């Protein structure tokens, strides 16, 4: 019954006219947006309409959550779900907290933060650009959202990173293995990702330069998040240098960004 009411709300949000400023925000703050076709841009804007209303947005440390903040973050989320024919509106993501800059969470929050099985929790006092909470909100630094979204040559994007953790957690775990479509896809994922993860760990230990951010060597969950950033930020380089990894990510996200983004990397 509750799904019926939510679907009715979504239809209402999608029927609203798009404010003229929204595409301008995305042109300025999400470099991929200008390379999308008209239909793809429409899908990103539709998701922005839904997330702007359905998610509870909270500004922290004095930040005002404006339409620009909502639309920019929702636009990055929209890139991740352009592939599936059935729209995904991040049904299980209820709230997003936005800080003006990197932040240090209260020590009391450390027990609630997203902690991955068999891995040490992050230092509660360490300054952060973003984080995902188990069954709770995604937290982001607005300064870093803009930094990552405006540069076509950065392999990082804090929104993509934290929402990759969201996808990873949809099956209840946080292990770098998001919900797969079928046993064969899951086996192929483990085969490729295990190999690529070990490859990154070895490179990080020996100080070798890598395309993938070596933060991904922390654990398998961070590897998936880092690989997701690279998939959408530097798809040509990822396909060229890590073809099998690009292939399994393309299968999961049901799209190939290298086919519609210019080879800026």
Your description of this structure?
With 265 residues, the protein is of the alpha/beta class. The chain has a single domain, classed as Collagenase (Catalytic Domain), CATH 3.40.390.10. The protein has ten helices and four strands, in the order H-H-H-E-H-E-E-E-H-H-H-H-H-H. Strands 1-2-4-3 form a four-stranded mixed β-sheet. The longest helix has 23 residues, at 183-205. The protein is globular and about 50 Å long. It comes from Pirellulimonas nuda. GO terms for molecular function: aminopeptidase activity; metallopeptidase activity. One of its GO terms (cellular component) is cytosol. InterPro entries: MetalloPept_cat_dom_sf, MtfA_fam, MtfA_N. This is Protein MtfA.
In short:
This protein is 48% helix and 6% strand. It contains 10 helices and 4 strands; from the N terminus they run αααβαβββαααααα.
List the helices and strands and how they pair.
Elements: H1 2-15, H2 21-29, H3 38-54, E1 56-59, H4 67-80, E2 95-99, E3 130-132, E4 138-141, H5 142-149, H6 158-168, H7 183-205, H8 220-233, H9 235-241, H10 243-253
Parallel strand pairs: 1-2, 2-4
Antiparallel strand pairs: 3-4
Helix pairs in contact: 2-4, 3-4, 4-5, 6-8, 7-10, 8-9, 9-10
